[in-house]
Amino acid sequence: MDTKCLKKIDEFVEELEKEQVYIDYLKYKSIIEKDAQLRESLNNFRREQFESQINHLYGDSSEYDDLIQLQSRHDGLLSEPVINKFLKAELELSDLLKNVFNVIANRINFDLDFLN
Does pTM surpass 0.85? Predict the structure, then answer.
């Protein structure tokens, strides 16, 4: 990749790192990482949530039923304020990154019509 382009990407990432959503994400991630059991529980929840979403995409299960069961299995974890704040920040950061990708893809006329 062109070094000029890489430099621009680095500059852009530096700007992203100043965004409050990224700062919040790192703050809550850091808190969670200090507690190995909490981190493991969160990763299990996230893995199961991801698998549930994939299964739903392939029609292997009911998303609503899976989410109810997932929430029930992880009720204690989800009642932790730091977990809720982390998950909210993670979702907002994911949305930001999705928007960045969409802007880039649209600007360069990258064909994503097959996704519709």
Answer: no
